[in-house]
Design goal:
Blueprint: H1 2-17, H2 19-22, E1 28-34, E2 44-53, E3 59-67, E4 72-74, E5 78-79, E6 83-85, E7 88-94, E8 99-109, E9 113-123, E10 143-150, E11 152-155, E12 160-163, E13 173-177, E14 180-181, E15 189-192, E16 196-202, E17 205-206, E18 218-223, E19 229-232, E20 246-251, E21 255-258, E22 268-271, E23 279-282
Parallel strand pairs: 11-18
Antiparallel strand pairs: 1-2, 2-8, 3-7, 3-9, 4-8, 5-8, 6-7, 9-10, 12-15, 13-14, 13-16, 16-17, 16-18, 19-20, 20-22, 21-23
Length: 289
């Protein structure tokens, strides 16, 4: 009896897997790829959206909705079929069996953090055998997402607050650092105090800010502080009738700002009045000392 049941199950699974082609079912799938994983502000990269007809018949009236990440500036899109405008890719018809069309979206990175593009087939004239264009479900093959990460940077001694961006209904969180769960890090916002690769999971599975499962880690980089210093070129700290000025030179690289009341920004300062003098040094990475 058990052998008969096992044989029946094996035949049933095989029938399902070949149903779309053998029984003339329609089946569109969508995928999204990105040209890079880790990027920097002002980099220009591309997202590519591909729609493939895996069914046995041609389909018509196909449209794809594209949701761009907030931290990018869109260049000029190109398509192998149809046209793209204002987040809608109007494809029209796609030929049967392995017919595929692509949309290429060049973007310039403008914001830090994970930048995720999402795309979803939202219209077709025929009925798709295994997905529904109206439900915007990331669990179906008519949905896709891809991401790039612009690392968050912070100066040594500071912290970074990062907030999860999960879909509606996600109400519990667990943060990870370098793939290890962080004890007690269960809130939507996590205060980061050390460099590393971070991600989070919600009560509806691993999403991060890319609800299609193609998540990039949130990368955090710690920048070193410059080493600020002042050299007294005259070797004295006393102004007299004979020593009417004292030459000071700031060290540490980058740019300088003296507390001389005049906002001097050069490395060298000639002191002619008694006071306590300090200098703020800003390194090329934006950190100060």
């Amino acid at each position: 009896m058990r052998l008969s049941v096992q044989k029946l199950l094996a035949v049933w699974v095989l029938t399902l897997s070949t149903a779309f082609t053998a029984f003339n079912q329609n089946d569109l799938s969508l995928g999204v790829t990105s040209s890079a994983g880790q990027v920097s502000i002002s980099d220009t990269e591309t997202f590519t959206v591909t729609v493939t007809n895996e069914g046995a018949t041609s389909v018509t009236g196909v449209e794809v909705t594209v949701v761009l990440p907030t931290g990018v500036s869109l260049g000029t899109p190109t398509t192998s079929a149809g046209s793209y405008a204002a987040g809608t890719w109007t494809i029209g018809s796609i030929a049967a069996v392995t017919g595929s069309v692509t949309l290429t979206l060049p973007v310039t990175l403008t914001g830090t953090g994970v930048q995720t593009l999402q795309a979803h087939i939202t219209a077709m004239t025929e009925v798709d055998g295994d997905s529904d264009p109206t439900d915007n479900s990331p669990l179906e093959d008519d949905y896709g997402a891809a991401c790039m990460t612009v690392p968050f940077e912070y100066c040594a001694g500071e912290t970074v607050d990062i907030t999860a961006t999960a879909a509606s209904g996600h109400n519990s969180y667990q943060w990870f650092k370098d793939n290890v769960a962080i004890p007690g890090a269960i809130n939507e916002t996590y205060n980061i105090t050390a460099a590393g690769d971070y991600r989070y999971e919600t009560n509806i599975g691993a999403t991060g800010s890319c609800a299609g499962g193609s998540c990039c880690d949130i990368m955090v980089i710690e920048n070193a502080l410059p080493i600020a210093g002042i050299t007294n070129n005259d070797g004295t700290t006393e102004l007299t009738c004979l020593q009417t000025s004292i030459s000071l030179t700031a060290t540490g690289g980058g740019t300088y700002l003296w507390s001389d009341g005049g906002g001097t920004t050069t490395a060298n300062l000639s002191v002619t009045a008694p006071a306590t003098y300090t200098v703020t040094v800003t390194g090329a990475n934006g950190c100060t000392a």
